[in-house]
Design a protein that fits this description.
The complex is a heterodimer of chains A (144) and B (531).
Chain A (H helix, E strand, L loop, with lengths): L1 H4 L36 H6 L1 H34 L1 H4 L2 E3 L2 E2 H47 L1
Chain B lengths: L12 H22 L6 H6 L6 H12 L2 H14 L1 H12 L1 H15 L4 H5 L5 H34 L5 H52 L4 H11 L17 H17 L4 H6 L6 H33 L1 H6 L7 H50 L6 H26 L4 H25 L5 H20 L26 H18 L6 H13 L6
Pfam families (chain A): DUF485
Protein name (chain A): Membrane protein
Keywords (chain A): Membrane, Transmembrane, Transmembrane helix
Chain lengths: 144, 531
């Protein structure tokens, strides 16, 4: 099932070709990210190094983290179904391993939420702003 | 504490009704104030994208603090113990799928419906039609669950025992709900959700802190009392009280867990909420807010459920009108008397009202935006006529919900919801993930994964023991089941992933690279996104 959570991803750095944009002598970062009328050129943005970096950064965080919480949750579910002996052991007073395991799921979920929120704010948002800034700048140039 | 009331465990019906009517009046006023004079399509479907992350987060949790989670799960914990607890764990963990994989990307890519995202880079008409079909089926199952809860609740609160009387009240509820949707659209519905979620969170927090105090702030002490008071004894606290009888029921349990964790972020009415905020950052903030309120709520529900076993007792719960679903209201009566019961019941009732309103909105949006505007009118519909169609659809759906509620009256609502979740995860999750993250994914793949998941899910439910062959089945007297599990998730969810993959690989048409570039850039950065 974890495999299903991660659809076969294209190689993150593969540039899109066949749009007549990757002229052989210009580097990817020098291409204008907007068309002549100032409309964003999505193929060029997708091929730009800043966008490639954003995508890699996002995927490197989001896919492993999803796999992690999914496996961790599945462990809990499978143990609840098939590991009765283990789950019914008393841990603290009347609280058994199963209940403790469930409460740990609560804790881990909140921890992942907080970690992702922080990661997105520090590592994704500035990168998105950078790309948007580039596109805006190129749009101004395009209009002139 | 015990006010002598003729109705016994049901408190004072007059008081219950008064609190509830007060809630309806206040929310109707809010809905009326929130609605503009002539709403655009964006106002009607997405509240003009004008809500903040915090507001939408609370409304999102409101969508999930439904009758199913409040009444169904507290009842399941009270009667079955640990296996009921699994529901709440699954429903909390599930938000991570929305947070990490879907929410922000969906906000950036689409405008009003799930179909917007699925059809973004595919052939519009067949994919939109498929997305709308999936939305309508999923929403119908989910709505059935909510309306079934309404029936049980009415029985308990108003002491209405005759089926005819209950049907009458379900009808009244349905009419008020349609009114919310028609007058308030998404903005009104969201405000109702915010008010309701806040009330429900306060209620559950108050009750659980009070109960913990009663047991000397010792969870262990509470669990001990609950086990003593349950016919299951110690087994109440252990896995297997509900699903542990044999190998098949254990597999069923795993299937259920899968549906719970993968289903939530695939529900159309939940996904649609992401469009009510201005951008992806606010969408993220809404899931963070939502996760915190779900965290608090489900910890509270764990305590409420076990406390209902300890203080009310499963025998009394099962004997009450409304059965399992009446655990939380009975506990409220036990600790706070008729007043607290009135408040809790009114909130639970409001919950059903608000969630069904949200469902109606999602279904009508899907029909008007995907089917009417894009399939029938080829994307050239006048926005005004689109809103008119949406409103008409809302009336039709409201009518169907009333009929469905009368028919499904009495089923365990958490269980019915789990079927809806299995369908949602089967039809939508694979399609959304492939569409957002897999470059090669194409129209054939999209159609295969939507229909593969939806049809296999529906067939397996139709031939499952949930439908026929056991004493608790929906259809009684005949036995045509051959699929051994009540929840189809473990088969239909992987199958939809497989279908999407095979459909893409086997078809000759390549994906449209320009649209793919546009979708990916838009999903990740919001460049070109509609606000």
């Amino acid at each position: 099932m974890t495999r299903d959570m991660r659809p076969p991803a294209p190689p993150p750095s593969a540039p899109t070709t066949g749009h007549g944009l990757s002229a052989p002598f210009t580097k990817a970062c020098d291409q204008p990210l907007c068309g002549p009328a100032g409309e964003p050129d999505f193929a060029a943005i997708q091929a730009s190094p800043e966008f490639t970096r954003l995508r890699r950064r996002l995927r490197l965080f989001v896919f492993p983290m999803s796999a992690l919480f999914f496996c961790w949750y599945l462990t809990f579910a499978l143990l609840s179904a098939y590991g009765h002996e283990f789950m019914r052991r008393k841990a603290v007073g009347e609280i058994n391993v199963g209940t403790l395991f469930g409460l740990l799921q609560f804790l881990s979920t909140i921890m992942i939420v907080v970690t992702y929120a922080r990661f997105a704010k520090k590592r994704l948002d500035p990168q998105v702003d950078r790309i948007r800034e580039q596109v805006r700048a190129d749009a101004e140039v395009g209009r002139k | 504490m015990m006010v002598p009331i003729a109705a016994g465990t049901t408190g004072s019906p007059t008081l219950n009704v008064t609190v509830f009517v007060a809630f309806v009046c206040i929310t109707l006023y809010v809905v009326y104030r929130a609605s503009g004079s002539s709403p655009t399509a964006s106002d009607y479907y997405a509240a003009g994208s004008g809500f903040s992350g915090m507001q939408n987060g609370i409304a999102l949790s409101g969508d999930f603090l439904s009758a199913a989670s409040f009444l169904g799960i507290s009842g399941a914990i009270a009667v079955h113990g640990y296996d009921g607890f699994l529901y709440s764990v699954g429903w909390l963990v599930a938000w991570l799928v929305a947070l990490l994989l879907i929410g922000e990307r969906l906000r950036n890519t689409g405008r009003f419906t799930v179909g917007d995202v699925m059809a973004f880079r595919m052939k519009q008409r067949p994919v939109r039609a498929a997305a709308a079909n999936a939305t309508l089926v999923i929403t119908f199952f989910y709505m059935l669950a909510q309306m079934a809860g309404a029936g049980g609740l009415i029985a308990l609160l108003l002491n209405v025992h005759s089926k005819g009387g209950q049907a009458l009240v379900i009808t009244a509820v349905g009419i008020v709900m349609v009114f919310y949707v028609l007058v308030g659209g998404m903005k009104g519905t969201t405000w109702v959700q915010i008010i309701k979620a806040t009330l429900l969170l306060l209620c559950v927090t108050f009750i659980s802190v009070f109960i913990l105090g009663k047991f000397g702030f010792s969870l262990s002490g509470l669990l001990g009392h609950a086990a003593q008071n349950s016919p299951l004894g110690e087994r109440l606290l252990e896995p297997g009280g509900w699903y542990g009888q044999n190998a098949m029921s254990k597999l069923d349990f795993v299937s259920l867990s899968l549906s719970l964790v993968l289903g939530i972020s695939s529900l159309p009415h939940v996904l649609m909420r992401f469009y009510t905020v201005p951008d992806a950052k606010e969408a993220r903030r809404s899931v963070v807010w939502c996760s915190w309120s779900m965290f608090t709520f489900y910890l509270g529900i764990l305590i409420v459920g076990y406390a209902a076993t300890a203080l009310v007792g499963p025998d009394k719960i099962l004997a009450a009108p409304g059965g399992e679903n009446s655990a939380a209201p009975l506990l409220a009566f036990r600790i706070g008397g008729a007043v607290l019961l009135g408040v809790v019941s009114a909130v639970a009732f409001a919950t059903i009202l608000a969630v069904v309103a949200g469902l109606t909105l999602a279904a009508s949006a899907s029909f008007a935006h995907d089917v009417y505007a894009n399939v029938l009118r080829h994307g050239k519909a006048d926005p005004r006529s689109e809103v008119r169609v949406a409103r008409l659809t809302a009336i039709v759906i409201g009518f169907l919900a009333i009929i469905g509620g009368i028919v499904a009256n009495g089923q365990n609502v958490a269980f019915l919801v789990s079927l809806a979740l299995a369908l949602a995860a089967s039809a939508n999750l694979s399609t959304m993930l492939y569409s957002l993250y897999w470059k090669r994914f194409n129209t054939t793949g999209t159609l295969w994964s939507i229909y593969g998941g939806l049809v296999s899910g529906l067939l397996l439910i139709a031939f499952s023991p949930a439908m026929s062959g056991t004493p608790t089945s929906i259809v009684k007297g005949v036995d045509f089941h051959w699929f051994p599990l009540t929840n189809p998730g473990i088969v239909s969810i992987p199958l939809s992933f497989l279908c999407g993959f095979l459909g893409t690989v086997l078809s000759k048409q390549p994906a449209d690279p320009d649209k793919q570039a546009e979708m990916e850039v838009r999903a990740l950065t919001g460049i070109g996104a509609k606000h």
